[in-house]
Amino acid sequence: MWQAIRGILAGAAAGAAGTTALNAATYLDMTWRGRPASSTPEETVERLADKAGHPVPGEGETRDNRLSGLGALSGAATGVGIGAAVGALRALGVRVPPAAGAVLVGAAAMAVTDGTMAALRVSDPRTWPASSWLSGAVPHLAYGAVTCATLDAILARRRALPGR
Question: Comparing C-alpha atoms, which of 20, 26, 44, 34 is closest to residue 123?
Answer without folding.
Answer: 44
